[in-house]
Amino acid sequence: MKCWHSGYMSPEYVLYGQFSDKSDVFNFGVLLLEILSGERNSDFSVTEVSVSLLGWAYHKLKEGRLLELIDPIRETCDSNRATRSILVALLCVQEIPIDRPTMSDIVVMLSNETLSIPEPKEPAFRSNWQSQQLDYLSINEMTFTSMIPR
User: Any residues with CB less than 8 A from the CB of 28 and at least 6 apart, and which?
Assistant: First the structure.
């Protein structure tokens, strides 16, 4: 089952129509997760744990199975670098812009293998936020048509 996703749009743009100085960081994080996993965020197949690539990656982090996110070429990749890259990508896609790193921080985290990376918070679009918002709406099953000529 395929589902519509924000693709590369940051949550602040999707929800409020505003860009922040961290919108590009969000885009970079989505792109990095797509490259690492071999999946497109906009074409991600709904799973039992998530409706987005971002949510699936976060779920793998919480399970302690990050390397399962890597495209099948994982046998040939450096697992430490792959893990660092996924963690950095998850930091980039956090929902609140101030929680995301700057691009210069990203470069340092990816190039310095001894630097510790903080635990990412829950990413934006982790679950089906559209259907969650629909839960708050009431559905009126009654319609009324007035037949008054103009």
Answer: 92, 103, 106
How far is Cα 129 from Cα 150, in angstroms, rounded to an integer? 42
- pTM value is 0.74
Residue 21's alpha-carbon distances to 16, 27, 103, 105, 124, in angstroms, are: 15, 11, 10, 14, 16
Query: Each residue of 32-86: pLDDT tens digit?
Result: 999 998 888 877 665 555 668 888 899 899 999 988 888 776 667 888 899 999 9
Q: What is the DSSP letter of 102?
A: P
CB atoms within 10 A of CB 131: 10
40 contacts 8 by C-beta, under 8 angstroms: no
**Could you tell me which residues come within 8 angstroms of residue 123 by beta carbon, excluding any fewer than 6 positions away?**
54, 55, 57, 58, 90, 93, 94, 95
Fold of 11-134: Transferase(Phosphotransferase); domain 1 (1.10.510)
Per-residue pLDDT of 8-37, as tens digits, reads 677 776 776 777 788 889 999 999 999 998
